[in-house]
Amino acid sequence: MKVLVLGGAGFIGRHVCDLLMQRGHVVTAFDPAPLELPAPHAGVRGDVRDATAVECYVARHDAVVHLAGLLGTAETVDRPGPSVEVNILGALNVFEAVRREAKRAVTITVGNHFMLNSYSITKSCAERLALMYNREHGTRIAVVRGLNAYGPGQKAKPVRKVMPNFILSALRVRDLTIYGDGEQIMDFIYVRDLAAILLLALFLDHGCYDRIFEAGSGRRTTINAVAECVIQAAGSRSRICHQPMRPGETANSIVLADTSTLEPLGVDAAGMVTLEDGLRQTIPW
């Protein structure tokens, strides 16, 4: 198949593109920062806010993976406008093109959908719009709630992600900074497992377009425990320090996947890469 990956140059997008190419599909990575891919694959410069460009590329492909988004929790609370433009209006451009061209698609949403920050709010809005399109227009847009993905290729900035910042601090023997008391629960998923789930949701005839697949391990892990695990895996002498919660984040939050939602895809969370094994593959990178 010819598959369009919107946001293909991002962290998750690169792994999705790699997996698609390994499986023999022809990939177009559509992104403001184009990804260089070998022929017959292509990386093209594009923005989901450009409805005409989105329509044009959707029409040329058999299936669509929508990963484009403006990230950030504390980073976006003071300027919600760009998040709305990219994460809601951009998603609408994708959903409209998918509807008009009758193409199957998968879109990603967030685990911390309940938090009051621009990213969580706008991505949650987009996930509901996808479900509305499926019900009212008969589209086949699978919705996957990606929990806290980590792995090789994830950047530590400008959006501050937990795992790369923990790992870099541990490798530099600096304090690992935790916001809040560290007892909040986060569910981490290795990025290749998430990429595989996205493609199952895209290609399988599961018929589940009225619900959300929750892509996570289902493992209850506190941030304090994750930090300790990183320090141990890196062989570091770093210590843990605590800072006040950042704007847009919720103290004592629980972000945990209901892995039973993955049963229609034939996914057993027990077969996923464990946090310990994932760190062993990520830290060398």
How would you characterize the overall build of this protein?
There is one protein chain. The protein has helices at 11-22, 51-59, 80-101, 118-137, 162-171, 191-203, 223-234, 275-282; strands at 2-6, 26-31, 42-45, 63-66, 104-110, 141-146, 148-150, 176-179, 185-186, 188-190, 212-215, 221-222, 240-243, 254-255. A seven-stranded parallel beta sheet has the order 3-2-1-4-5-6-11, sandwiched between helices. A three-stranded mixed beta sheet has the order 12-9-14. Strands 7-10 form a two-stranded parallel sheet. The chain has 285 residues and is α/β, with parallel strands linked by helices. The longest helix has 22 residues, at 80-101. Helices cover 37% and strands 20% of the residues. The chain is globular and about 55 Å long. Helix 4 (118-137) links the parallel strand 5 (104-110) and strand 6 (141-146). The mean pLDDT is 94. Helix 1 packs across helix 6 and helix 3 runs parallel beside helix 4. The chain is built from eight helices and 14 strands.
Descriptive labels:
single chain; 285 residues; alpha/beta; three-stranded mixed beta sheet; 14 strands
Sum this structure up briefly.
This protein has 285 residues and is α/β, with parallel strands linked by helices. It is 37% helix and 20% strand. It has helices at residues 11-22, 51-59, 80-101, 118-137, 162-171, 191-203, 223-234, 275-282, and strands at 2-6, 26-31, 42-45, 63-66, 104-110, 141-146, 148-150, 176-179, 185-186, 188-190, 212-215, 221-222, 240-243, 254-255.
Fold topology:
Elements: E1 2-6, H1 11-22, E2 26-31, E3 42-45, H2 51-59, E4 63-66, H3 80-101, E5 104-110, H4 118-137, E6 141-146, E7 148-150, H5 162-171, E8 176-179, E9 185-186, E10 188-190, H6 191-203, E11 212-215, E12 221-222, H7 223-234, E13 240-243, E14 254-255, H8 275-282
Parallel strand pairs: 1-2, 1-4, 2-3, 4-5, 5-6, 6-11, 7-10, 8-13, 9-14
Antiparallel strand pairs: 9-12
